[in-house]
Amino acid sequence: QLDLLWTRKQNVMYNLFDWPTQKHSKLIILAIANTMDLPERIMMNRVASRLVCLLFKLWDFSNIVRFFCVLTLAKLSSPLVGNIVAALSGDARRCLDICRRATEICEFVSQKRTPEIVRMAHVTEAIDEMFSSPYINAIRNASLHEQIFLKAILAEFRRAGVEEATVQQVYRQHVALCRIEGMQSPTVSEIMAICSRLGACRLLLVESSNKYLHMRVRLNISQDDVMYALKDE
């Protein structure tokens, strides 16, 4: 994940992509990132100039269903799984997680009676289990501004192409979302309190520092889970 190697001076990425250019080097570096315009968005010219980029579209519903059917031959449940995964992020890994958990549930049930194949009930149970974690319930029960703060984090991650941001950057997104909703924006002290509460719930990983607005934050759960928890908000 190339975006996780980003640093302020970008020395890590520069050195990484410099190795294949060395004399007699036989090294080829392949890197992936979820942001299509990552080189233009965050990379210095000295790093971006060393890259050859290939763009791949997000998987839509039909792609995921075909992928699911090829792997499992379970056409019964593939539309359900495909719809849920495509609605979130198009990440086929989540599809595989659901399939794996459904298989585990089926195997556990089969230990108590005659063996059986994975059925729709197993898939549905796996989906319900995956999207009803304590973290997701915590987000759904969070205050309105705590939920907006999480939305602001997602917006900032999409803008920057890096899954880390300062509280100040997230605060700007939070204020913008409040304006769109016609709500009063929280004060800086209120934002810091929101950030602290979300960190205490382990929804966020907050840098231990006295930098306040310049503290860096990361999500402690996947962006898919945050989007799922907030999809009806």
UniProtKB/TrEMBL annotation:
<keyword id="KW-0547">Nucleotide-binding</keyword>
<keyword id="KW-0235">DNA replication</keyword>
<protein>
    <recommendedName>
        <fullName>Origin recognition complex subunit 1</fullName>
    </recommendedName>
</protein>
<keyword id="KW-0479">Metal-binding</keyword>
<dbReference type="InterPro" id="IPR041083">
    <property type="entry name" value="AAA_lid_10"/>
</dbReference>
<comment type="similarity">
    <text>Belongs to the CDC6/cdc18 family.</text>
</comment>
<dbReference type="GO" id="GO:0005664">
    <property type="term" value="C:nuclear origin of replication recognition complex"/>
</dbReference>
<dbReference type="InterPro" id="IPR027417">
    <property type="entry name" value="P-loop_NTPase"/>
</dbReference>
<dbReference type="GO" id="GO:0005524">
    <property type="term" value="F:ATP binding"/>
</dbReference>
<keyword id="KW-0067">ATP-binding</keyword>
<dbReference type="Pfam" id="PF09079">
    <property type="entry name" value="WHD_Cdc6"/>
</dbReference>
<dbReference type="InterPro" id="IPR036390">
    <property type="entry name" value="WH_DNA-bd_sf"/>
</dbReference>
<comment type="similarity">
    <text>Belongs to the ORC1 family.</text>
</comment>
<comment type="function">
    <text>Component of the origin recognition complex (ORC) that binds origins of replication. DNA-binding is ATP-dependent, however specific DNA sequences that define origins of replication have not been identified so far. ORC is required to assemble the pre-replication complex necessary to initiate DNA replication.</text>
</comment>
<dbReference type="GO" id="GO:0033314">
    <property type="term" value="P:mitotic DNA replication checkpoint signaling"/>
</dbReference>
<dbReference type="InterPro" id="IPR015163">
    <property type="entry name" value="Cdc6_C"/>
</dbReference>
<comment type="subunit">
    <text>ORC is composed of six subunits.</text>
</comment>
<feature type="domain" description="Cdc6 C-terminal">
    <location>
        <begin position="150"/>
        <end position="230"/>
    </location>
</feature>
<dbReference type="GO" id="GO:0003688">
    <property type="term" value="F:DNA replication origin binding"/>
</dbReference>
<dbReference type="GO" id="GO:0046872">
    <property type="term" value="F:metal ion binding"/>
</dbReference>
<keyword id="KW-0539">Nucleus</keyword>
<keyword id="KW-0238">DNA-binding</keyword>
<dbReference type="InterPro" id="IPR050311">
    <property type="entry name" value="ORC1/CDC6"/>
</dbReference>
<dbReference type="InterPro" id="IPR036388">
    <property type="entry name" value="WH-like_DNA-bd_sf"/>
</dbReference>
<dbReference type="Pfam" id="PF17872">
    <property type="entry name" value="AAA_lid_10"/>
</dbReference>
<dbReference type="GO" id="GO:0006270">
    <property type="term" value="P:DNA replication initiation"/>
</dbReference>
